[in-house]
Specification:
The chain contains seven helices and 16 strands. The mean pLDDT is 97. The chain has one domain: Metallo-beta-lactamase, Chain A, CATH 3.60.15. 21% of the residues lie in helices and 27% in strands. Strands 6-5-4-3-2-1-16 form a seven-stranded mixed beta sheet. It has a seven-stranded mixed beta sheet with strand order 7-8-9-10-11-14-15, covered by helices on one side.
């Protein structure tokens, strides 16, 4: 499989001979409000044109409707006929935006031979979850490719650990910027990302959702230093740059 990090959570994945786009966030640099007063968002531009990003895409997966995962520009530019898998409950809003082929991911779903299974996530813990709303992660499975667990906008908590134990994924994609809302951690930070690597010694962890939003607290360099501090094999924790493509196998 090939995984291209576009920016933030947006990924373009060539998997099982098909091209998937995850959580398209196409807003120009500094075109959206700040979350903390530190900087307008997103803090970085796209590494390629939207036309190039959309080239070849056959399926879109939208984990939730926060603007940094499915924004107004994406709603305008993603072709309305492309199939979209989404979190249950979000399908109505996506259809209202004009999309005609929207399926809520209620259970394991087979799309062109690729099995997509929803997985639990929690966008923080405690009262902040009510502010953040529901989110999902998912796994991807197809013969001949590594099993992929896209954890999504979640902290490390028991259901995430249980998913790792249960399916023993080859690739785990984390959101690792340590974003905080009113002081509460709402996605994984460096410590939790390293803990995921220790939970899954068989897996390669790919850390994404970094250095794009002003409520992040962990940089790529922070995460590298945290991994080095515990002598984590650098081949087991990959921290791609925006626009970088990784070739991954079992």
């Amino acid at each position: 499989m090939q995984l291209e990090l576009i920016r933030n959570a947006t990924l373009k994945i060539n998997y099982g001979g098909h091209v998937l786009l995850i959580d398209p966030y196409f807003a120009p640099r500094h075109s959206l409000p700040s979350f903390t007063g530190r900087s307008p968002n997103p803090m970085t531009g796209l590494p390629a044109s939207i036309d190039d990003i959309l080239k070849g895409v056959e399926l879109v997966i939208v984990s939730h409707l926060h603007t940094d995962h499915f924004d107004s520009v994406a709603k305008e530019r993603v072709p309305k006929s492309l199939p979209i898998l989404c979190q249950p409950g979000d399908e109505g809003s996506i259809r209202e935006a004009g999309f005609t082929n929207v399926t809520p991911l209620l259970q394991s779903t087979i799309w062109n031979g690729v099995t997509v299974t929803p997985r639990q996530g929690s966008h923080g813990l405690g009262p902040v979850v009510e502010k953040m709303g529901r989110v999902i992660g998912f796994t991807l499975e197809v013969a001949g490719e590594p099993t992929v667990y896209w954890a999504g906008d979640t902290v490390l908590y028991p259901p995430v650990a249980e998913t790792i134990r249960q399916i023993s994924p080859d690739i785990i994609i984390t959101h690792s910027c340590g974003a905080r809302w009113d002081g509460d951690l709402i996605v994984m930070d460096a410590e939790q990302t390293v803990a995921v690597s220790r939970l899954a010694p068989q897996a390669i962890v790919v850390a994404t959702h970094m250095e794009a939003l002003d409520h992040a607290t962990i940089t790529r360099q922070d995460l590298r230093q945290a991994a080095e501090a515990v002598d984590l094999d650098p081949s087991r924790l990959l921290i791609p740059a925006d626009g970088e493509t990784l070739s991954l196998s079992r």
